[in-house]
Design a protein that fits this description.
The chain has eight helices and 16 strands. By secondary structure, it is of the alpha/beta class. The protein has a single domain, classed as 4-Layer Sandwich (Metallo-beta-lactamase, Chain A). The strands form three sheets. It has a seven-stranded mixed sheet with strand order 8-5-4-3-2-1-16. The protein has a seven-stranded mixed sheet with strand order 9-10-11-12-13-14-15, with helices on one face. Strands 6-7 form a two-stranded antiparallel sheet. Helix 7 crosses helix 8. It is globular and about 55 Å long.
Length: 255
């Protein structure tokens, strides 16, 4: 299983792209602005999109991808999301006002998009032994993280979250854990904003990582543009024992 970072920033500008990961050639984990860097033939190869939550920086490219690949595929793209996130997408994105409803385009019998409801702790088994399991998260909208399992090694992506004991209960059971991608959106100066918006800052990150009981390489994502250097300085000072590094666009993990 190969995981390529298409976007890992908390915003846009220059070469910054918002959250998305390409798994092998056919799976997206979230669909932020980084998806737009794929070629049309690569977009047409996407069979599955797993969505952590409904915020725009994580779902922006789903509508445009659907429009782009219509006519280039013989089967629908499956959007895997919780019941709550699916309902938000139906009500607020694919509602004919913001964007057409691709679950009935080109026709109800031959849609471009289909939804598959996921639940925390229930694994989705995909081809070639690949498994994706939703994990608990704690955000201002219903949200999950994901455990990506190749059969021999695992990577956890927390998605957007703040303090969440249930997440660590699940992560600490993953014997094959190799990589942990965790968000830190704000600097310590914005602690109250981090708490209000249910994100992490370095001081909160330290508290969370101290709950991790398994060895793993720690990668920091969702850094706010203009604050990246400051946040990473605080992380490398306060969370140094965990040896975290900033996630990079186009970084590749092989599990």
């Amino acid at each position: 299983m190969q995981i390529k970072v298409l976007g890992c920033s908390g915003g846009i500008g220059g070469d910054l792209r918002t959250t998305s990961f390409l798994i092998d050639h056919d799976i997206l984990i979230d669909a932020g602005t980084g998806v737009g860097d794929l070629e049309v033939v690569e977009l047409a190869a996407i069979d599955h999109i797993f969505v952590t939550h409904s915020h725009l920086d994580h779902i922006q490219s789903i509508p445009l991808l659907a429009d782009t690949v219509m006519g280039l595929r013989e089967k629908p793209v499956t959007v895997h999301a919780t019941r709550e996130t699916t309902q938000i997408l139906k009500d607020h994105i694919f509602n004919w006002k913001v964007w057409p409803d691709f679950t009935v385009i080109p026709s109800g019998n031959n849609p471009l998009l289909v939804y598959h409801e996921i639940e925390v702790g229930v694994t989705v088994q995909l081809s070639h032994g690949r498994r994706v399991t939703p994990l608990p998260a704690n955000h201002v909208v219903p949200a999950v993280g994901f455990h990506l399992d190749s059969g021999s090694n695992s990577l956890v992506f927390t998605g957007d979250t703040t303090t969440c004991d249930a997440l660590w209960d699940a992560v600490n059971q993953i014997e094959t854990l190799r990589h942990l991608i965790i968000e830190t959106a704000f600097s310590n100066a914005d602690l109250e904003l981090a708490r209000l918006s249910k994100h992490l800052c370095p001081s909160l990150l330290l508290t969370e990582l101290d709950k991790l009981k398994r060895p793993a390489q720690i990668h920091i994502t969702h850094l706010k543009p203009g604050e990246t250097a400051r946040i990473m300085r605080e992380i490398q000072r306060d969370v140094a024992k965990h040896q975290p590094t900033a996630l990079r666009n186009k970084q590749v993990f092989n599990l």
